[in-house]
Amino acid sequence: MEKPVKEFNIVIAGIGGQGNLLISEIVATAAVRAGQKVRVGETFGAAQRGGPVASYIRIGSEVYSPILSPRTADLIVGLEPLEALRNAVRFLRQGGTVILNTRPIIPTEVSMGINRYPPIQEILDALKRVGAGRVISFDATAEAEKLGMALVMNVIMLGAVAGSGVLPFPTEILREVIAERLAGPLLDLNIRAFETGLAMSKLQ
Amino acid sequence: MSQRRIPPYALDKPGERVLLLGNQAIARGFLEGGGQIASSYPGTPASEILETIADFAEMYGIYAEWADNERVAFEVCAGAAVCGLRAMCSMKHIGVNWAMDPLMHFNLRNPTGGFILVSGDDPSQHSSANEQDNRFIARMACIPCFEPSDPAEAKDMAAKLFEVSEAFRLPVMLRVTTRLCHVRGDVVLGPINMERRKGKMAPDISWRTTTRVRDIPPHKPLHDKEEKIKELAETLQWNRVEGTGDERIGVIASGVSYNYAREAIDKLGLNGKVSLLKLAITYPLPERLISNFIGDLEKLLVVEELEPFVELQVKALSKDSNPKLEIYGKLDPNRKLIPREFELNTEIVSNALSDLLGIPRLFTPSQSGEAQALASMVTPRGLTMCAGCPHRATGYALKQALRKLKVDEYTVIGDIGCYGMLSYPPLRLIDTYLGMGSSVGMSQGCARATGKLSIGIIGDSTFLHAGIPGLISAVWNNTNIKLVICDNQATAMTGFQPHPGTGITAMGKQGNKVDIESVVRGVGVKMVETIDPYSVSQSIEAFMRALEFEGPAVVISKRICATEAVRIARRQRVTLKPYRVDPEKCTGCRTCINTFGCPALVYDASKNKVWIDPVLCMGCSVCAQICPFQAISQGE
User: Fold this and answer.
1) Residue A93 belongs to a domain
2) Is A17 in contact with B150 (Cβ distance < 8 A)?
3) Which of B17, B280, B333, B444 maximizes the CB count within 10 A of its CB?
């Protein structure tokens, strides 16, 4: 059993259909297995695909609420840049870590000319202005396409989280949970995705 | 089941610590409490309860089903409970409105089997059309209302409530909210109760074996039960006072709100100054426990989501036990510290406590120009139908038909389902709606009131749930409505549950398929058109014929949900070929985006061209049929 932490807060931000809930379940299961108390808050239902989806994973002995308080996130995992910023503005604590997939998904209102989508460099600058201590960013969707399936982007991002070294439990437990949760014909692909993300994140 | 990994909620491993979703924990409680029958109709946030039970049903000799609507689900469980079996009926808060009619009789029927009604309330309306507080329904029906604070407690409570229900021969309500249903937490598994009863109606229930005496008001025994349940409430293991007893300020918090109150007191460093009473039953209240708790307090904050349900009752109690007590929450007209709308969180409760004690707030929004600038960068992202959604194509064809017929005065009433998003830009097709099935009835009122074209739009599952009586009424009265049934062969919005039109049951068995077109023709609709919305011009023509018909007409727009189609293709290893835009032909007119608006269509302002995001496109072809310059075609 790991040394119990008091409070470690993660936000996984993306849009419906990106596999947000799956990786939040894997992280939380690993934390439980490491002997930690865990609360995960999620909203799903109306947004099938396309709407914003955020999962809050809270790990630690002093955790009760399933919802984060403002400026208390230690880590924000952005599966989509705008959604990462949306959550960082509200939840990132000073010096927190952001891991970002730089591939945007443009809302239709932007294509219609009603709203503006900030360029990626503007988003990266804004994350620093919000107070991010460390930003790990790469095009995880492109990496997933290289592996032959855009869908495994979420597992690449999970690998990047492991590679960042910020999680309060060992990567081995994550690997164990992935092997169980993703058992099936796509397990090898998912393991490769995880290791790709882990390596990408260590490069930065 | 031997072929696959047994999910954590189904493990026969007492003592094992696992991560469970709140809804899975409730389903596990059903298993540990010896539940034998479960029925439900999908509705967020409660859907996963029945899905989970159905998943392990066969393994443990349980029966689980989706019913056609919540009323039927309730009645199925009521039938099982009068025959002595333990039954659980789960639904979203608004679903309970459908079950109200049988509930208001069943509370008088003395079932011998335990009966749990799970009401999934949705503060903040994450996926609901209202925020109603169903604790009032428990009170109206005189049935006890239990509110767990986390998944672990929800599991234990669900198991225990079968015993409580049987002890009082009364249905009980397990009232949960989105932040319980859709929260994952660590849960310690208990032993599975494998008692399997054979159903038989108790002689004292059946009017065939008792004399049905009409002069005894059946409400007296019900009210007597309530008095006895108050005694149970006094010793309920999940009620708890946290504090030393010397505090002068107290907090009462129920259900999930306990977590916010606990964290707020801890973060503000108020242990020793503020005591906390955690309430797990909110009707009827443990009156002695509360009177003792508030007896020596000067100020009390009541923390609960939605209506001031506990606060009202505590106010009444305080008249005897502590008339000078200052009670805050939602009712004091000068100091509303806890909002009556939206869900709560630690920030809200912490700030309420700070204000009550006159100490600085922990959470203050930053007013700096920098914070404002950053916030303004975050473009909103509205809800939308998925790329390739057949509903969008249906809405497009209907709008084009209206345009071609030059109809400019009409009403469109929507219904409950993904197609409700047809009210958003760019289609902006729907005027308004009420609850399930309202498109059929309300459009008849609009037709009578305006004398103009009146259209209703309803989904397949919703039509079978609540639309049929309305359609019968329209046929009977010959009311000139046009009903569009968007048949995507799934209850998509709540997570692709099967429905009678699919013929597949909750336990994955082949049942009998109910054919929507046969139902429509069977009730006597003379004009019925069935279209494939991916065939754009044929769909427009069919809509035009239906709109011009005198009398009730139905257009069934049939095409499987795009997300489901993508999943099936993935399972069958079929690669879907996305469409692409030829930049030579694209003029940047944006007809595709401004009249149709599939999220895979992206406008690049720097080039004045549209491109299609291949990650989102599933190859439905509709945009290619819409493009006035034939610039869109399928890729290789």
Assistant:
1) yes
2) no
3) B444
Mean pLDDT for A150-162 is 97
Q: Scanning the structure block, which residue is given the tokens 């790991």?
A: A2
Separation of alpha carbons B135 and B541, rounded Å: 50
Asked whether residue A95 is assigned to any structural domain, the reply reads yes
Instruction: Establish if A98 belongs to a structural domain.
Output: yes
Q: What is the pLDDT of residue B367?
A: 77
Q: Terminal CA-to-CA distance of chain B, rounded, Å?
A: 40
Distance to chain A for B125, nearest Cα, Å: 10
B266, B347, B351, B377: best mutation site toward chain A, by most A Cβ within 10 Å?
B377
Collect all residues of chain B within an 8 Å Cβ-Cβ radius of residue A38.
19, 184-186
Å from A123 to nearest chain B CA?
A: 8
Give which of B178, B157, B144 is closest to B45, Cα–Cα: B178
Q: How confident is the model at residue B146 (pLDDT cuts 50, 70, 90)?
A: very high
All structural domains of chain B: 9-196+207-232 (3.40.50.970), 239-357 (3.40.50.920), 390-569 (3.40.50.970), 575-634 (3.30.70.20)
| B60, amino acid identity | Y
Which has the minimum average pLDDT: B78-92, B143-157, B449-463, B489-503?
B489-503
Q: Summarize pLDDT for B343-385 with one digit per residue, the tens.
A: 999 999 999 999 999 999 999 887 788 888 998 999 998 888 9
A173 in any annotated domain: no
B379 contacts on A by Cβ (under 8 Å): 82, 107, 109-110, 115-118
What gap in Å lies between CA B244 and CA B316, rounded to an integer? 25
CB neighbours of residue B371 within 10 Å: 14
CA-to-CA distance for B64 and B505, rounded, in angstroms?
Answer: 9
Q: What would the pLDDT profile of B260-318 be if each residue is shown by its tens digit? A: 999 999 999 999 999 999 999 999 999 999 999 999 999 999 999 999 999 999 999 99
Considering only CB atoms, B179 lies closest to which of A66, A82, A123, namely: A66
- The span from the CA of B12 to the CA of B100, in Å, is 36
CATH code for the domain in which residue A91 is found = 3.40.920.10
ipTM, two decimals: 0.96
* CA distance linking residue B501 with residue B496, whole number of Å: 13
Min distance B310 CA to chain A CA atoms (Å): 21
Total of domains in chain A:
1
Residues of chain A positioned with their CB less than 8 A from the CB of B259: 39, 64-66
- Mutation target to probe the B interface, by most B beta carbons within 10 A, among A58, A64, A121 is A64
| Mutation for testing the A interface, residue in B130, B184, B366 having most A CBs under 10 Å | B184
Question: Considering only CB atoms, which chain A residues are within 8 Å of B601?
Answer: 108, 111
CA B190 vs CA A37, B103, B152: distances in Å: 18, 31, 11
In degrees and rounded to multiples of 5, residue B109 shows phi and psi of: -105, 0
Give the residue numbers spanning the domain of A72.
8-143
pLDDT of residue B3: 53
Under DSSP, is residue B540 helix (H, G, I), strand (E, B) or coil? helix
User: Average pLDDT, stretch B78-107?
Assistant: 98
Nearest-angstrom CA–CA distance, B538 and B543: 9
- Type of residue at B124: S
Counting residues of chain A whose pLDDT is more than 70, the rounded percentage is 96
**How far is CA B276 from its chain centroid?**
31
In tens, the pLDDT along A134-149 reads 999 999 999 999 999 9
Residue A1 reports pLDDT greater than 50:
no
Q: What is the mean pLDDT of residues B579-590?
A: 98
The pTM score is 0.97
Q: How confident is the model at residue A46 (pLDDT cuts 50, 70, 90)?
A: low
pLDDT of residue B537: 98
